Amino acid sequence: MNILLYSPDNGVTRNFMPHLWMFLLKSLTPPEHKVFLIDGNAQPMTEAEIAQYVRDNQIELCGISAMTRMAARAYRMADAIRSAGAKVVFGGPHVTEVPDEPLGRTDEPRHADAVALGEADHTWPRIIADAAAGRLQEVYKPVNENGKEVKPSLEDYPVIPWETLDLSQFNMMGKVPGAIRTFLRRFTHDWESLYMIPIESGRGCPYGCDFCTVTGFFGDAIRFRSNQSVVNELLSVKRRAKTEHGHMGVFFIDDNFAINVKRTKSLLRDIIDQDARLPWVAQISINLLKDEELLDLIAASGGRWIFIGLESVDAESLKGVNKGFNKPADYKLALDRLAERGIYAITSFIFGMDGDTPGVAQRTQDVVESWPPGLPVYGLMTPYPATPLYDRLRDAGRLTRPKHWLDFRPFRMAYTPDRISIEQAEAEVREAWGQAYSPEAIADGLNRIRKRPYSERTVMFFARLAFRGIYFPQMKRWQWFHLIWQNRRPLLSLTYEAFREMMKHKKALKRMARSDNLEAARKT
Ligand code: B12
Ligand code: SF4
User: Fold this and answer.
1) Cα 81 from chain centre
2) Which atom of ligand 1 lies closest to the CA of 68?
3) Does the pLDDT of residue 453 top 70, yes or no?
4) Residue 473 CA to its chain's centroid (Å)
5) Of 160, 223, 364, 477, which has the fewest Cβ atoms less than 10 A away?
6) 45 and 104 fall within a common domain
7) Residue 11 pLDDT more than 70?
8) Where are the alpha helices (DSSP H) in 32-107?
9) Helices 488-523 and 439-448: crossing angle, nearest 10°?
10) Is 355 contained in some domain?
11) 94/184 same-domain check
12) Where in the sequence is the domain holding 237, given as residue range(s)?
């Protein structure tokens, strides 16, 4: 059977990283079936194009996953795929939370032939067998023969063959302007490709923040893969980077990579001992970033960026969403300690919490400016179905758009916070992005780390330009020109520094060659 795994575009950003579920399900597919992968964020397609693709490749079964924000888009694509003759099965967090919706059991038309609820590691082979035999069922639950829910232990985690997979749609070098690519090819030998690879080392988070779907979906029982299987996966990614003269970074997509600090340390030690080091990013909550030994191991094993859900600089707002374990008073110390080791933070903030009042953007910015520079990201509190937040707001009749996902609009609220209007909360997000990514803020951030190595400052500069794009449209060439022009001062200064270093290096090489010649002449 020909199977397509499809991830719809999110309507906001391009993907910098493939979705792991596709590669995981591909690895769990029996070898007699052929699997095609399309990520709509990397390879955008219209409904007509996807239907044609399904016909051209004689796809019989299509698996689609979608976060809540992509649901409407996913449903439209599913309709096109079904009209082209393939069966559609949906999986992932959104349909697990509202399974009746894609099956047409609500007031929404039907978009799926089947849904897979929860973690599908064990159900996917069953779905394929049923589809191949023409007896696809409507709902697949991850339960045993007694109907009891079973969470995959991750002990038998499949091998994802990163070394041989076709990743061309995710090569970020493809998005780099041609002139820069030619320059890099001329002067270096290792910029043929650039990938960010998602790897999971464990699942589950026990913290149960009110707005988050993770505790409900993966459960509060944390499960880990063996250290060795993670190390092997890293080694395979590393080998690929070498053979294709490219660069590969890893995103440990665990929701809380250091949830068990002892185990994280032991994994990082194994990564170091077996030289499976690659530059990596992970999500870790701030309360776990106090342990200096952990921070040393993060740095030594290749950790470069930590994604931290700070959410708010106001302790009361945090308590209101069951995230009181985040202590704003401790943020700076943890971020300083990371920066001392050359590790920077992607700090995520949510506006529109019930405690928020007008001016929240400025208050947050004042605090952020006292930290080492990083990549702040700002969003609005979004009630995802089946979360405690959603249920609370629905029961109180406060949802202004109860099915906001069917009418997805980026950076738009779906309820009225109690101390700030919807319009004001949205304006605060706009202001926060504007302030944090202004040319002045970018220059100031670089200035704050002027004593750090050149490579760190360059990465910070380009990462800031790229992250700005999450909020401000900058897909088009002229938008990039404008951005570069606005930030020309730090760019020129970094370029000049690189040129100076290159000249110094050349001179040193010449000096060495001259002294070698003298030495040789003396000997003859
Ligand atoms: C990595 C990640 C990202 C990455 C990007 C995604 C990527 N390219 O991988 C980044 C950091 C960019 C990101 C951003 C966001 N994310 Co995110 N992200 C994750 C994270 C941490 C891991 C995803 C993952 O790979 N998991 C591991 C795989 C194996 O699990 P899985 O995808 O669920 O797949 C399993 C099952 O669901 C099922 N399955 C999944 N798909 C399918 C399909 C079929 C056909 C079948 C049969 C089965 C199946 O089988 C798999 C194996 O068991 C999850 C949380 C989590 N732990 O999953 C959040 C999560 C998916 N993100 C979430 C959110 C909200 C966001 C943002 C909207 C946050 C924001 N406000 O900006 C943005 C939106 C990004 C965008 N522009 O679209 C929510 C989604 C909730 C929801 N109901 O939609 C999650 C669940 C986290 C949360 N806090 O609740 N995210
Ligand atoms: S700590 Fe993060 S992953 Fe865990 S429940 Fe809270 S927001 Fe979700």
Assistant:
1) 27
2) 84
3) yes
4) 19
5) 477
6) yes
7) no
8) 47-56, 71-83, 93-97
9) 40
10) no
11) no
12) 158-207+222-281
pLDDT tens column, 70-110: 999 999 999 999 999 999 999 999 999 999 999 999 999 99
| CB contact at 8 A, 480 and 433 | no
Ligand 2, pocket-test mutation among 205, 310, 323, most atoms within 8 A of CB: 205
The token pair at 256 is 């809380």
Answer whether 31's CB lies under 8 Å from 23's CB.
no
What's the CA gap between 196 and 250, in Å, rounded?
Answer: 5
Token reading at 412: 């738009």
How does the average pLDDT of the chain come out, rounded?
93
pLDDT at 250: 97
Query: 15: pLDDT confidence band, cut at 50, 70 and 90?
Result: low
| Residue, of 180 and 307, whose pLDDT is higher | 307
Q: Any residues with Cβ below 6 Å from ligand 1, and which?
A: 10, 12-13, 15, 17, 19-21, 24, 63-65, 67-69, 89, 91-94, 97, 116, 119-121, 124, 127, 198, 200, 212-214, 253, 255, 379, 384
Rounded CA-CA distance 410/404 in Å is 10
Same domain flag for 117 and 197? no
Position with higher pLDDT, 259 vs 182: 259
How many beta carbons lie within 10 A of that of residue 505, not counting itself? 10
**Shared-domain flag, residues 203 and 231:** yes
Domain of 114, CATH number, reads 3.40.50.280
| Ligand at shortest distance from the CA of 256 | 2
3-state helix/strand/coil string of 389-405: HHHHHHHCCCECCCCHH
Q: Which amino acid is at 295?
A: L
| Nearest listed ligand to the Cα of residue 41 | 1
Distance 309 CA to ligand 2 centre (A): 8
CB 356 within 8 A of CB 383: no
The conformation of residue 102, written as its DSSP 8-state character, comes to T
Phi, psi of 316 (to 5 degrees): -65, -40
Is the C-alpha dihedral spanning 90, 88, 125, 54 positive or negative? negative
At 464, list the tokens: 């800031």
